[in-house]
Amino acid sequence: MKEKLLFVTKGGENCDEGFSYVLQLAKTLNAGISVLMVYSKGVMDTYDDVMAAVAFAEAGQIETVKELMHEQEKEITMIQDRKIKELTERCRENSLELIYQVAAGDMINAIKHFLKERPGIDMVLLSPNLSENRKCIDFKKLLKNITKPIVTITRPAEAKA
């Protein structure tokens, strides 16, 4: 396949948002799809989880803190595996190739590293869970560091009566 599309998404339950667009584009271009699922550095995402861990740590219950962190990590892995399986199946149904990678940390560095490893990528497509949240990604820095065309996918506008 000539073109390769890189679909970048933030890991989690709605990580497949925008994938239908990427799938249609890949079919049109007869291209393969690479998925880069990026998680923030911290495993504990919610304020409640952090506060619970702090409370247990202050009480000297380090094993409970480790257990909490392990449970959340297990849940994240379960969601990730399920979503990757769903995306792989959707590609298989459309006779398209899918490669995926999971990364943790800075979004831009993860994209940069992925593109360095796979120079055949021709276009980067950002999931709505990234493109609609300005706090997730610094677009100026992204454009400065990534030389490939970048497409931001947004959610469809709702019709108003």
State the main characteristics:
161 residues; alpha/beta; globular; Rossmann fold; five-stranded parallel beta sheet
Q: What would your notes on this structure say?
A:
The protein has six helices and five strands. The longest helix has 32 residues. 48% of the residues lie in helices and 18% in strands. It has 161 residues and is an alpha/beta fold. The relative contact order is 0.22. The protein has one domain: HUPs (Rossmann fold, 3-Layer(aba) Sandwich), CATH 3.40.50. The mean pLDDT is 83. Strands 3-2-1-4-5 form a five-stranded parallel β-sheet, sandwiched between helices.
Topology (elements, then pairings):
Elements: E1 4-10, H1 19-29, E2 32-39, H2 47-58, H3 62-93, E3 98-104, H4 107-117, E4 123-126, H5 128-131, H6 139-145, E5 150-152
Parallel strand pairs: 1-2, 1-4, 2-3, 4-5
Indicate the structural class. alpha/beta
Average predicted confidence as pLDDT = 83
Share of helical residues = 40-55%
- Unreliably modeled segments: none
Q: CATH homologous superfamily - what is it?
A: HUPs
Proportion of beta-strand residues: 15-25%
Number of helices: 6
Per the principal axes of the C-alpha atoms, what is the gross shape? globular
Structurally, how many domains make up the residues? Answer: 1
Secondary structure: number of strands: 5
What's the SSE pattern?
A: EHEHHEHEHHE
Main sheet strand line-up: 3-2-1-4-5
What separation lies between the terminal Cα atoms? Answer: 44 Å
The assigned CATH architecture is 3-Layer(aba) Sandwich
The CATH topology is given as Rossmann fold
Just give the CATH class.
Alpha Beta
How is the biggest beta sheet arranged?
A: 5 strands, parallel
What value does the Rg take, in angstroms? 18 Å
